[in-house]
Design brief:
By secondary structure, the protein is α/β, with parallel strands linked by helices. It has two domains: 3-89, no CATH class; 103-349, Aldolase class I (TIM Barrel). Helix content is 29%, strand content 15%. It is built from twelve helices and eleven strands. It has helices at 3-7, 21-27, 33-39, 47-56, 63-66, 152-159, 179-189, 204-207, 214-222, 241-252, 271-283, 307-318, and strands spanning 106-108, 111-112, 118-124, 166-171, 197-201, 227-231, 256-262, 287-292, 328-331, 339-343, 347-349. An eleven-stranded mixed beta sheet has the order 1-2-3-4-5-6-7-8-9-10-11. β1 and β2 form a beta hairpin. It is globular and about 55 Å long.
């Protein structure tokens, strides 16, 4: 078994007739580098390195997301986020398997507590897309999932800790789970009277907008807490009409929508691109929230943007955008009590 399969939890496939539409789309995602190169009419010379890198961390990308890429362009900014490369196999000092200290923060199975008042549930080890820069690309999901045992450990951890006012669903991607399983979690969390907010971190509505179906929206509407959905889009071309419709549905179900991006060399390290991303997000009803400095995870050093360059980009962005469209440039530091703001402004935020 290769390392990618060992870390990621496999997506269970049911007979197509019994699956919702989004599950069928997910099941048809491209997982073979040769297929991806063929669909995009790319040079087959990229294949040997792509296969070797995919043996370490598997390829997965929905066909609808691939359709937003430019055929024949190996430098397409959406493609660069998902195509396995030889660069991933270069050992770079300072880039590690657990760059933000997730494992040290686990207080119960799949429950991470880093910041006061909040816990993060590693809800799923599966994603609709395997982003090559993912800071959890080497996370040991097996044995460390909050959803194990019908969420029993996770619910007990929240209910027993009155300091927890917010639960954050993350992963992997929590929306790879069926709506019924999400509903079981939130039914259990109702036992915690101190819980005031629910947050969902997900890339699914961006790469597979079909996931935001009627049943999911009914679940959102049923929740007793204010819900914030934090999306993950890095480039304006990721925001197509399907994504806009999904965002409108979630807003209609009462969710507040924010976006966080990762600053990536060759993808969005350009003030024009970042400005267009903020504008596209706002048109879809999403407020820009964070631009993250790259977490130094093994295999992702080729995406690194130096801090000085990042600051220059944010200064340029401030001259083009109103304040409410300005994301904060932040870094997560292992052991810090909050994310650290680099620009605009200074200090820490929660």
């Amino acid at each position: 078994m290769n390392n990618a399969l060992g870390n990621r939890v496999m997506i269970t496939r049911l007979p197509a007739a019994s699956q919702p539409a989004w599950k069928q789309e997910l099941g048809q995602a491209i997982t073979d580098p040769e297929v991806l190169l063929h669909v995009l009419d790319l040079d087959r010379s990229l294949l040997p390195a792509a296969r070797r890198a995919a043996d370490i961390f598997g390829l997965r990308v929905p066909r609808g997301f691939v359709a937003r890429m430019r055929p024949g362009d190996p430098h397409d900014p959406l493609l660069k986020q998902v195509l396995p490369l030889a660069d991933e196999m270069i050992d770079t000092p300072g880039f590690t398997a657990d760059p933000v200290g997730d494992q040290a923060a686990e207080v119960a199975r799949g429950v991470l507590k880093k910041y006061a008042g909040r816990v993060l549930l590693v809800a799923s080890g599966a994603c609709a897309v395997n982003c090559r820069y993912c800071f959890r690309r080497e996370y040991p999901y097996r044995g460390h999932l909050a959803a194990t045992g019908e969420w029993a450990d996770a619910i007990a951890a929240v209910v027993s800790d009155p300091s927890v006012t917010e639960v954050i669903l993350s992963g992997g991607d929590p929306l790879t789970l069926p709506n019924t399983q999400l509903a079981r979690l939130t039914a259990g969390l109702r036992q915690a009277p101190h819980l005031a907010r629910l947050r969902i971190h997900t890339r699914m509505p961006v790469v597979l907008p079909e996931r935001v179906d009627a049943e999911f929206c009914l679940w959102l509407e049923s929740l007793p807490w204010p819900v914030t959905v934090v999306l993950h889009a890095n480039h304006p071309r990721e925001i197509d009409e399907g994504v806009v419709r999904a965002c409108r549905r979630m807003r209609g179900a009462g969710a507040t929508l924010l976006n966080q991006s990762v600053l990536l060399k060759g993808v969005n390290d350009n003030a024009d691109v970042l400005a267009a991303l903020s504008e596209s997000l706002f048109s879809a009803g999403v407020l820009p929230y964070y631009v993250h400095m790259l977490d130094p995870v093994t295999g992702a050093a080729h995406f690194h943007v130096p801090e000085q360059r990042a600051r220059q980009l944010m200064e340029a962005l401030e001259t083009r955008l109103p304040g409410y469209l300005m994301p904060r440039l932040v870094r997560e530091i292992h052991g810090a009590s909050s994310k650290t703001v680099i620009a605009p402004g200074s200090g820490n935020v929660t």
